[in-house]
Amino acid sequence: MIARIGASPWSQWNLAVTGINASPENPGPGCAVARCLSEASGFRGRVLGLGYETLDAGLYQPDDCAGGYLLPYPASGSQALLERLDDILSCERIDAIIPSLDAELPNFIDLEPTLARRGVRMLLPSRAQLRRRDKDRLPALCAQAGVATPRVRPISDLRFFERCTKPEEGGWTWPLVVKGVFYDAFVVHDPEEAAERFRQIADAWGYPVLVQEHVAGEEVNLTALGDGSGALIGPVMMRKQAVTDKGKAWAGVAIDDSDLLAAGERLMRTLAWRGPLELELLRDAAGTLHLIEINPRFPAWVYLSHGVGRNLPVALLALLHGTAAANLPLAEPRPGVTFIRHARDLIVEMDDLVSVTMTGATRRQSAEPRHRLIA
């Protein structure tokens, strides 16, 4: 399925991957990214997991991650992140980092030039690109790209739900979708339910909270890479077959959808995106695709890309090394391949938990040469 990569210099790289939590309802993409790399034919590098919580599962998965480290929460800012990464670089060689969570991307974008001077590569969008795909700016982006999207409005007062159906408030109709700027989305059917979800999201993610028109239909997703030129590189498309209570894919099937592909190409061309991304769209009863979200990283279902023969994390490494898009190790994807997510118990020794709690690192430490820091 995938061309052998053993002769490629990046096949020996040491990589760090964030987002390695494995919550059943809403798993981070990092564990799937690490699995794509660890199972890639010819890859001989090491993968390190970078987590935020002691119980992030990727810290303790030796099959996919050779070790792991805790990072400061994104709210701590880019300087705190740089100080922690410098600590890690003093004992690990890291050739590339793949950030996998929305909230951490601004910090990594700020640090990209500094980390490049330390020999650490990343494939990230600019701040401006990141802002253009924010949920409250999707209507403007989609108008330029020629893609349909539901109306969305930021609100900070839950009394909006008592008057939202009035013409002066825009004449919204129930149900609505209440969602956070970074995470969480709930379909609500009346003002009481909407107020409850509003408070829940505001408590977790702050203001504003977003209200979006509800579109009923079949959800289809696309994940791909961009190199900043506007080209859609290595698209893998999926239709959800089963979802969690949060609407996350629990099972999905790879598809070949010309309309979805065309929408992805228009959006990528409009954004000139750099890095991985995921498009979430709904197809209504009339067959029209509506863009719901653009996630600025790999999705949690990215292991399907390996399953269909188009391993996108591997392609990202090749892009970072300077490989032209036309020469990436990407086979034609195989429609019909299905993934089914499952929960798996990890047996963790107490010494490992103590090590992460006390030192912020697992006991599986590297014997690699120390990475030279450049101011």
Uncertain ranges? 365-375
CATH topology descriptor of the largest domain: D-amino Acid Aminotransferase, Chain A, domain 1
Distance between the termini: 42 Å
Number of helices, where a helix is a run of at least 4 consecutive DSSP H or I residues: 11
- CATH class descriptor name of the largest domain: Alpha Beta
Name given to the CATH architecture of the largest domain: 2-Layer Sandwich
Residue-averaged pLDDT: 90
Tell me the domain tally. 3
* CATH superfamily annotation of the largest domain: ATP-grasp fold, B domain
Characterize the main sheet.
6 strands, antiparallel
Indicate the structural class: alpha+beta
Helix content: 25-40%
Overall body shape: globular
Number of strands: 14
Elements, N to C (H/E): EHEEHEHHHEHEEHEEEEHEEHHEH
Give the neighbour order of strands across the main sheet.
13-12-9-10-11-14
Radius of gyration: 21 Å
Q: Assess the beta-strand content as a share of residues.
A: 15-25%
Protein name: Carbamoyl-phosphate-synthetase
GO molecular function: ATP binding; metal ion binding
Organism: Allochromatium palmeri
Keywords: ATP-binding, Nucleotide-binding
What features would you describe in this structure?
This protein is α+β, with helices and mostly antiparallel strands and 375 residues long. The protein has 3 domains: 9-122 and 345-359, Rossmann fold, CATH 3.40.50; 129-133 and 216-340, 2-Layer Sandwich (D-amino Acid Aminotransferase, Chain A, domain 1); 151-213, Dna Ligase, domain 1 (2-Layer Sandwich). Helix content is 28%, strand content 22%. The chain has 11 helices and 14 strands. It has helices at residues 30-38, 78-89, 105-117, 127-132, 138-145, 160-163, 191-205, 258-271, 303-307, 312-320, 350-359, and strands at residues 14-18, 46-51, 67-70, 96-98, 152-155, 176-179, 185-188, 209-213, 218-227, 233-243, 249-255, 274-283, 289-295, 338-340. The strands form 3 sheets. It has a 6-stranded antiparallel β-sheet. It has a 4-stranded parallel β-sheet with strand order 3-2-1-4, with helices on one face. It has a 4-stranded antiparallel β-sheet with strand order 5-8-6-7, with helices on one face. Strand 1, helix 1 (30-38) and strand 2 (46-51) form a beta-alpha-beta unit. Helix 2 (78-89) packs across helix 3 (105-117) and helix 5 (138-145) packs across helix 8.
